Each structure stands twice: as structure tokens, then as C-alpha cells.
Amino acid sequence: MAADLSQIVKAYDVRGVVPDQWDEGLAELFGAAFVEVTEAEAIVIGHDMRPSSPGLAAAFARGAANRGADVTLIGLCSTDQLYFASGHLGMPGAMFTASHNPAQYNGIKLCRAGAAPVGQNTGLADIRALVERWSDDGAPEPTGKPGTVTERDTLIEYAEHLRSLVDLSAMRPLKVVVDAGNGMGGHTVPTVFAPLPLTVVPMYFELDGTFPNHEANPLDPANIVDLQARVLAEGADLGLAFDGDADRCFVVDERGEGISPSAITALVAARELARHPGGTVIHNLITSWSVPEVVREHGGTPVRTRVGHSFIKEEMAKTGAIFGGEHSAHYYFRDFWNADTGMLAALHVLAALGSQDGTLSELVAQYDRYRGSGEINSTVADQTDRLAAVREAYTDRDGVTLDDLDGLTVTSADWWFNLRPSNTEPLLRLNVEARDETTLTTVRDEVLSIVRA
């Protein structure tokens, strides 16, 4: 009977519980189908620290080699290290990770050569169809000879490449606490930071895919509590928290306060515009007003997109943008094959702080100009009905504009909010920003009263 992959093949990746929803047998078929669809002669494969990752990656490699592709295994790596290998080696790639999901999950992030994303509309649907067919009938016998499987360590090259993209020459010594969440940051941070004038205080650097200390998702405030306390206890200049596959980075200032990813987006945008004057910067529609303001002030062109990495990468490719940022702490760089890398964003923060004498909170204040609610989720019985009710409440209001780029965005002179449905859960997600706390509270409470009515 053909495997039902509808629960594990998502919009941009493969993700599910191992072995209940998928296993090494299916991973082998995914490897074969990936080569078939991409027509790749050579591919690169990496994996994170989850207990199931090495076996799944090896099975995928077998399937790929069986279809004639030469396979380069880079072993333990962060997702952005896999993107580096794909770009640097000019090969399609596969990264085995489920990011911040619990230990029983695993997944595959796929890309074409140069780290170009593979999603539903760019090959993933075709890969799924082949795997479903082959799981029932068996994969056809390959006609050519099998490919080779070799191992290669790319960690040092990855670290050198990242450091080459940031001017770190004027950095003063800094003390930084890094919470790797038992994820791949514990593998990459020591090598990337090694030559820098940093005193690194490591937290949870032991690679452990069961996540014994906390979930490896730094956007949840509960997961940065330990980091905040340690920054204060150590008298550190800042703290950094990485997610499970270390492609996202969250920043904490010297007071133990979390810094909005929008402020980091604005800071990095200003620095990238100094390197690439007049460039275009992408930001999704729930980043702060600060981001397009800072981009314009530094001579750049801001472009607003929907939420989600596929939209950001698509827009970056179309516009030739130099940088892109999301409020989820994903940061994309043209100099990194338009792929996202939290580590490069972290290096920019370290360089910006280290090249002047003030504190991080003082530095970031110029990029953090408004009050934000953060994302507020509401469980609703009917997303369409509640969204329509909010639309009706604001449609004829003076001085207000509405747009539908991604859900509903309502904008006034002193505030804006975006309300959009989750694609996977019965939720509406609300983000509000205003010029002051009182206005923020008023708008937030009014929208929530309609959503939750």
C-alpha cells in the first residue's frame, strides 16, 4: 500500500514523528526521488543532533547514490552550514532536522544548488508523488552505475566564509553568553567565534536531541529565561540564543532584556547598506515600522512581503535584494546565496557593539522606536468568520487603510495591526504596533474582543 505522506510533506519541508509517520525506508525513497526530480549528478547531505538523524541521513544517501548521484556527507551541521555547503560546492542539498520540534520529530529541508529552496511549487510535490508511488510499487531499478559516497568536513570553511562577510577588525573584547539549547549552535559557535576577542560563556552546548534543558525555540519567552538570568549573573555584554538547527538567532541585551528581531533586522540592514549602498532590503509585513524607516534613512529601498521564507527568498531573487529579515528571527543575505543564517546576523551584532563603547541597549534604541505586542494567538472555530468580523469593524473608519497581502493588515497614523490565519492550526495570529503603550493596549484589546467574541 502506498505511503500517505500528506501529514509529513509540508509547504517547504518534510517533517513528522519517527518512526510512526516516516522511517529510514521512506528516507531512502526520498533520496532517490530527490535525485530523480532535480536530475542532480552530485548532492550534499548534513544532519543535526537528533537520535534519528544519522540513520535517516545515511538512508537518504543510499537512495541518492543508488540513482547515480555522487554524495558528499558533511555530518553534524547547522542548517545554514548545509546551505553554505550547497552554495560553496554548487550542489543540491538535504538537511535532516526538525528545528525546534520535540525529540521524536525529524524532517528534511531540501535545496537545489546554490541553496535555492525546494518547496511544493519547486519540486517537493513531485518528490512526494514519486515516493508515494514507489512505496507501493518499489522504485524502478536504476539504469546507470551507482554514485560514490564520500565524507567532508565543511565547518572551518563555513566559519571562515561568515567571518569574511563582516568587518570584525575593530572589535573590542566582549563577554557573551550563548545558549545553544542542546542544538547545533553548540557545534558551530566554538569554531565561528574562535578567532574573535570574545569571552564566551556556554550554556547547553552538549549536543542532545532530546532537549533536556528547554525547548530549542528562543522565540518563546519561557526558553530564554535561563539566558537572561545568566547574562545578568555574568555581567555580560549580551546573550545569544540559537534554535535547534541554529539557523535562527535571538539576542538579549546587557540588562537581560530580549531585543526585538525587528530591531536586529534594522541594525543589520543599516550595516549591509553601508557595504552595498542603495540596495534593496526585504522585510515581512509584521516587522516594525522601524525597519523600512531605517532602510530609507540609509539610502536603501524597503520591500514588504508576506510571512514565510519562501516568499522572502523569492522576492530577494526577483529584486536582487542585499538582505531580508523576518520578525521570527530569520535573517537572509545575498552574500549567503539568499539563504537564512542567524550566525551571520549574530556576527553583525557583535561587530556593531564591539566597534563602539556604549551598551547594546543604547545601540539598539535607535532601531527600536515603537511598542509591539508580539504575536498573540487565538483559537477560533471559524477563521474566515472572525477575520470578516474584524474587517467589518474597521472598514469605514476614518484615517484607516486595509490591505490583504497576508491576512488582514489595518493601518492608521499611530498604529497598525495584522491578523492572519494559521495554515496548520485553527488559530488567528495577531500582531499590533503603536507609537505608545496606551494606544497599543487599546488597539490590541479591541481586536481581541472581536476575534474572541
TrEMBL record:
Keywords attached to this entry: Isomerase, Magnesium, Metal-binding, Phosphoprotein
Required co-factors: Mg(2+)
Pfam family of the protein (one): PGM_PMM_IV
Ranges for domain Alpha-D-phosphohexomutase alpha/beta/alpha: 7-133, 157-256, 264-370
Signal sequence bounds: none
Protein's UniProt keywords contain Metal-binding: yes
Family membership noted in the UniProt record: Belongs to the phosphohexose mutase family.
NCBIfam families assigned to the protein according to its UniProt record, in alphabetical order: PRK09542.1
Protein name: Phosphomannomutase/phosphoglucomutase
